Amino acid sequence: MNRFIQKALCAVAACALALSLSACGSTSPATGAASADVPTVTIWGYGGQEVREALQAVADAHNADPAYNTKARVEIQFVVSGTSEQSLPDRLAAAYQAGETDTDFDIIALDDSGISAILAQTSEDFFIPIDTSKIPNYENVVFKDNIVGDTFIPYRGTAVMLAYNSETVENPPATADELYQWIKDNPGRFAYCDPSTGGSGYTFVTTAIYNQLPDEARMSPDTKWETEHTAEWDNAFALMAELHPYLYQTAGKVQYPMKNAGSLDLLATKQIDMTPAFVNMVLSQKNMGTMPESIKLQPIEPAFSGALAGFCIPKIAKDQEAALSVIDYYLSYEAQAIGWNTMYASPVVDTAKLENLDHADWLEETNMDELRYFSIGMIQKDIVVRWTEEIAPLAQ
Amino acid sequence: MANQKKHRWLPYLMVLPAFSIMVLVVVFPIVNTVARSFRTADGQFTLDNYAYFFTSAEALQSLLFTLAEALTVMALSVVLSFLLALYLRFSKSPVSRALGKLYLLPRFIPGIAAVYAVMNVIKDSGSINRIAAAFGVDYKPGLLYDLKGIILSNLWFCIPFAAMMMSAALSSVNDSYVESARDAGCSWRDVLCRIILPLTYKDVIVSATFILMGQVGAFTIPYLTGPNNPKMLGILLYQQTGTYMNYERAAALSVLMFLICLGGAIVYIRSNMKEEVWETGK
């Protein structure tokens, strides 16, 4: 019996060996040929499904464009939020700490607010400076002044505006103060999501602080804007506490919805009349018919914080030249129009030059020329922590 | 005999793959987490990570909330699935046959889709509200973003799981035992207490401990359907990393949650090891 097992094991081992050898034999020439011709550039992203679709749509167009597909072939790897997969920042940290240098993390597509968390887990120079002279279409970008550092190339803007139900709200607030007054005048009809779970709630809290600070503060990660301006911070959190009882309630108490989608759901089902919301999320849902036509977007003064989503190249990337060509394509007018048409991504280029747009009127309504750009580094963590400690406990 | 001696390594070789995976993905991370929970961010020894949770009112509230949720879900799903399994085992009607197939369905539906489906029913503007509206009543159930919402959504997952385990246990109850007991004049209550329960109670305990342990670490359902406060321990843990980025404190909380689950695990192991008098054959 034992001899039989021994023989069987040998046979299995031999088969496995033979299989693995033959597998090597058959695949290596193929991959060798592909990499000799056109390098594959992998863009890694994380976030909502719509971001994945937009990145993929542009990638497909890139791979079909003869001017670009000879220089690189784009592949998208995406970690959709809400799945139990390991997050992209964790994967990057793991690869970095394992000392890998030749990875397929060629380009990281992320919101600029996500950069500091990745740097905190890796090193300050984890993302390499990008030579914009090798990206001809970088000339097209209109938000150059907004960009902090040379490691980040924006390809899409994200803006938060006030989304409201035009059936019940005839004159939406136009300023932040009018909005705070409106919330008090209409108890239970406004909600903002838990800032630790969604950017729309986060920006509502953040602008309450930064509306009192000098304008330069919003572009500075310097913690003096926190430590030397405690009065403004205290005011803002006192305001949040003051607004608290006037917010949306369910099961007999105030509830901060989870994630941006949570507050939008309340708006779509008309349980509230107004909420801060990402422009592209509202437009996409209107386009799909899951958001009623009566929901409109209103910019307020001073504006909610905007942000940019863009590309970074980690120093552990394998082919940085090819990556620049791919980034160049994402900044072309053609790619920017695809971005709008797939996810209503706010373009980072002159919108007048975009062609074949769906719902061009929506783009006009949500004009991004005056993006109020925020880049405050780790201060954003302090805002969320303080909200979690001071405001969240009120909801019980 | 000599042959057997020569191949003494064979059993070890056979368990090696499973054992090494266990060490790599279970034992090593646990050891690592325990070690980290006693350290500061710069690697110094500290007990502060634990002190934080033992002195924080929020953590205590979370613990009580989690226990309330877990015990309720456990009790309800055990009782409901035992009744369901009994019905499926002893009824031969077409309804029971159809139910027998249907109840497995939730096991094959992705969790996140199911949570949103349940939310669409129970939320204040959901199906319940709409059906009531058709009768001219504006009824807001107030179930979502509340303990009740978490319990309801979890029952959706736990009942099929527990019913499946109990159905398997009930299949060991031979029809002939029940028939002979009935012939000897046993009431249905006696059949339940003297035949069915002694044959199945181990599986009932096993499914109860599985459910309890699952609830202590639950994340997705309470995250989406629970209130802002109090939070379940899984959310509190997520907050330690996601909001505070304090990995050492998160490690300490993980260890504490692990200890809570250990209680369940001990019950599970003890009930599995215990041999009944009739099983030992004495």
UniProtKB/TrEMBL annotation, chain A:
<dbReference type="Pfam" id="PF13416">
    <property type="entry name" value="SBP_bac_8"/>
</dbReference>
<dbReference type="InterPro" id="IPR006059">
    <property type="entry name" value="SBP"/>
</dbReference>
<feature type="signal peptide">
    <location>
        <begin position="1"/>
        <end position="25"/>
    </location>
</feature>
<keyword id="KW-0732">Signal</keyword>
<protein>
    <recommendedName>
        <fullName>Extracellular solute-binding protein</fullName>
    </recommendedName>
</protein>
UniProtKB/TrEMBL annotation, chain B:
<dbReference type="Pfam" id="PF00528">
    <property type="entry name" value="BPD_transp_1"/>
</dbReference>
<feature type="transmembrane region" description="Helical">
    <location>
        <begin position="150"/>
        <end position="170"/>
    </location>
</feature>
<dbReference type="InterPro" id="IPR035906">
    <property type="entry name" value="MetI-like_sf"/>
</dbReference>
<dbReference type="GO" id="GO:0055085">
    <property type="term" value="P:transmembrane transport"/>
</dbReference>
<feature type="transmembrane region" description="Helical">
    <location>
        <begin position="70"/>
        <end position="90"/>
    </location>
</feature>
<keyword id="KW-0813">Transport</keyword>
<keyword id="KW-1133">Transmembrane helix</keyword>
<keyword id="KW-0472">Membrane</keyword>
<feature type="transmembrane region" description="Helical">
    <location>
        <begin position="12"/>
        <end position="31"/>
    </location>
</feature>
<keyword id="KW-1003">Cell membrane</keyword>
<feature type="transmembrane region" description="Helical">
    <location>
        <begin position="102"/>
        <end position="122"/>
    </location>
</feature>
<feature type="transmembrane region" description="Helical">
    <location>
        <begin position="250"/>
        <end position="269"/>
    </location>
</feature>
<feature type="transmembrane region" description="Helical">
    <location>
        <begin position="204"/>
        <end position="224"/>
    </location>
</feature>
<feature type="domain" description="ABC transmembrane type-1">
    <location>
        <begin position="63"/>
        <end position="268"/>
    </location>
</feature>
<protein>
    <submittedName>
        <fullName>ABC transporter permease</fullName>
    </submittedName>
</protein>
<dbReference type="InterPro" id="IPR000515">
    <property type="entry name" value="MetI-like"/>
</dbReference>
<keyword id="KW-0812">Transmembrane</keyword>
<dbReference type="GO" id="GO:0005886">
    <property type="term" value="C:plasma membrane"/>
</dbReference>
<comment type="similarity">
    <text>Belongs to the binding-protein-dependent transport system permease family. CysTW subfamily.</text>
</comment>
